[in-house]
Amino acid sequence: MNCIIAQSGGPTSVINSSLAGVIQGALDNNFDNIYLSLHGIEGIINKDILEVDKKKFVRGGVKEKLMARPSSILGSCRFKLPEDLNDDIYKKIFEFLLEKEINVFVYIGGNDSMDTVKKLNAYILSNNIEGINVIGCPKTIDNDLNGMDHSPGFGSAAKYICQSLRTIRADVDIYDLESVTIVEIMGRHAGWLAASSLLADFGYHKELVNLVYVPEESKSLKEIEEEVKEKLKTEKNLIIAMAEGFRDTDSYLDKPMFSNSDDGFNHPIVSGVAQRLADYLRDKLGVKSRAVELNIVQRTSNHISKTDADEAFKLGYLALKLGLDKTNLIPVLRRKEGKSYEVFYTEVEPDLIANKEMKIPESWLKDRKILREKITAYALPLIQGEVEQRYENGMPVFVELSDFTK
Amino acid sequence: MNCIIAQSGGPTSVINSSLAGVIQGALDNNFDNIYLSLHGIEGIINKDILEVDKKKFVRGGVKEKLMARPSSILGSCRFKLPEDLNDDIYKKIFEFLLEKEINVFVYIGGNDSMDTVKKLNAYILSNNIEGINVIGCPKTIDNDLNGMDHSPGFGSAAKYICQSLRTIRADVDIYDLESVTIVEIMGRHAGWLAASSLLADFGYHKELVNLVYVPEESKSLKEIEEEVKEKLKTEKNLIIAMAEGFRDTDSYLDKPMFSNSDDGFNHPIVSGVAQRLADYLRDKLGVKSRAVELNIVQRTSNHISKTDADEAFKLGYLALKLGLDKTNLIPVLRRKEGKSYEVFYTEVEPDLIANKEMKIPESWLKDRKILREKITAYALPLIQGEVEQRYENGMPVFVELSDFTK
């Protein structure tokens, strides 16, 4: 038996934990050849693949090293398969999978990538292809994947955000004057990460994040101004957590910052809302204000949640296992009822995930006390534990592809 | 004997290591009362002080906890003493110091704060005050303090920058297309931190940072464009390290980004150069480009260099010791000649440091190969070792003032 694995979409801190899980699954199930496709599905299309050296993998302790290595080690792509199943590209893909005698293809990615899994399975069905199972494995920092309790990658991003907020709080408190610091957090359509900034308050001796703005809600600039004024009555140095996708009803925050309207990856530049709000508040309230954009390190920090990494590994492992005799599935995790945090694993069809988005429930957003309670119960378990890093010369050292491929 | 300690200027990751050093020095020299002034010199002016509980300090292992706690725990100020020594404020300060029977006042800060040390000593001299010694203790992330080999705080900031660049490199390499990522790094007048980004290359399997721009040099946009084009011939995903204070000869990068021209702390908003250059390159070269601003976490990261923390502690310890029988001094560290990294400690007068700036030597900037060699030999030793952090609930927990004060 042979399998092939690819990673797609935006990177996360635990996407390689899932890769390690798939490889471990293939080893435990005595697969002959374990192939790796570079740059997502493009590696299969362009015949740009590598093969796992099983001995290197096991002897080198690569499993643990992959779990400590953030960002897609196989590379990624933003390639959407055509709707038309008669397109030549499908033929090309399956010719290659047949040539390599692939039994299981595991595609690790987000909702766009699950669309790829769905389409490949539609092709399998309509062409009566047997013996090739295409399985998805979920990931995203945004936590907006449908059909599961939470997305692998979210916990580590939330952990990084909370760690950064603890040090940002230590920073903003030093001057004996009023200030507002607006921290811009990833999340274009869903505010899970911005809301998870509230976890930083947990066990802290005072409120650490004072206001939160998420894309699920829209407010006028005047409302925001009033909320800031109100908070400044009791707290000198405000920290505002703001999702990059938050929009005010006055459309003040979403003016393009510069002449070019997209980032070259065909996503509009939505960042800059914090800088804009800082400018507005300085103008209106005469308060010292500044913007802090938590940048791309959010999604690929090496301060990885152990809980997140372990769950991502398990999902990868289960993806391979599902592929042994089934296709068109994605392993997901759900949370058990009860006080203590415990998950169980099941599977769903890609249709439930592809092109859909899970948002923060409306009921959580009634007021900030409820949001704080709900998000803490929900997300605090997901940032627990630290994945150990290997340091050399004072810097983290990550595993390389050549460390475990032929 | 009594002493008082204050912290001033911008925060660093090891400014509390110096505080711990001063306190340890006071304990070892059997001081009776160890006072802490809150918000720099303002705490003395406003009688806003605390006293160290010696038993709590020792029993609570506070020394190690302070060394793991970034950002000025005593708070800070941006207060410049008047030039006129007859100003009432001097009288007020010394009345308080006499009232509390202070023998040693240690002021931990940067070049502005060393100006304060200088002025207080001028007052002591002109008023024949005896028995009060005012000693400075150096810190800054910018590494621009004159009279010493390097500044405490620089090593930890450089370490954070290199760690971030390792993960940013893992991120930018994932797509199989040309891209330019411009990382904006702190440094208004000196490029030490931007240049230290080159350390991230050390032991890495390829060039990690491809181009570096520092405030010590100015270039035209056309020159930058040509350098980027040249680099893109051999590397698909460029990373450019750019100091926030870098300026092009065309004055394109220093347009104010928004309507307000300062950050409320009376510093002009100079950030945004990376965003601007990303925009320019996208326009001119049609290349995918984005800006990553390494934000204030640079200066208060809890990923602290052990070397840096140990040196900062030693300087604090020596500051107190100098104050036993001398005044108007600042302990500094210098590097011993020879292949292996070793420092020795000596002292200078504040005049050598106050209001001065140390820049990257011109000879280092002749070409990038030389800069890489020079900065690596210089700064790599400074990022070595990791200060252990205490984690609770998946987040770092820092020591509080109440953990070691009465």
Tags for this entry?
406 residues, alpha/beta, 2 domains, 5-stranded mixed β-sheet, 13 helices, 13 strands
Helix content of chain A: 25-40%
Distance between the termini of chain A: 18 Å
Q: Kindly state the mean pLDDT of chain A as a whole number?
A: 94
Following the backbone from N to C, one meets helices and strands of chain A in this order, namely: EHEHEHHHEHEHEHEHEHEHHEEHEE
What shape does the CA trace of chain A take?
elongated
Provide the domain count of chain A. Answer: 2
Range of strand content of chain A: 15-25%
Whole-angstrom Rg of chain A: 22 Å
Structural class of chain A: alpha/beta
- Identify the strand order in the major beta sheet of chain A: 3-2-1-4-5
In DSSP terms (H or I, runs of 4 or more residues), the helix count of chain A works out at 13
Characterise this structure:
2 copies of one chain form a homodimer. With 406 residues, chain A is an alpha/beta fold. Chain A folds into 2 domains: 2-153 and 302-356 and 386-403; 156-299. The first copy, chain A, is built from 13 helices and 13 strands. The first copy, chain A, has helices spanning 15-28, 41-45, 54-59, 62-67, 88-99, 111-126, 154-172, 192-196, 221-232, 273-285, 297-300, 306-322, 368-379; strands spanning 2-7, 33-37, 49-51, 102-109, 133-138, 179-185, 211-213, 237-243, 288-293, 330-335, 343-348, 391-392, 395-396. In chain A, strands 3-2-1-4-5 form a 5-stranded mixed sheet, with helices on both faces. Chain A has a 4-stranded parallel sheet with strand order 7-8-6-9, sandwiched between helices. A two-stranded antiparallel ribbon of chain A has the order 10-11. In chain A, helix 1 (15-28) packs across helix 12 (306-322). The longest helix of chain A has 19 residues, at 154-172. At the A-B interface, helix 7, helix 10, strand 9, helix 11 and strand 12 of A face helix 7, helix 10, strand 9, helix 11 and strand 12 of B.
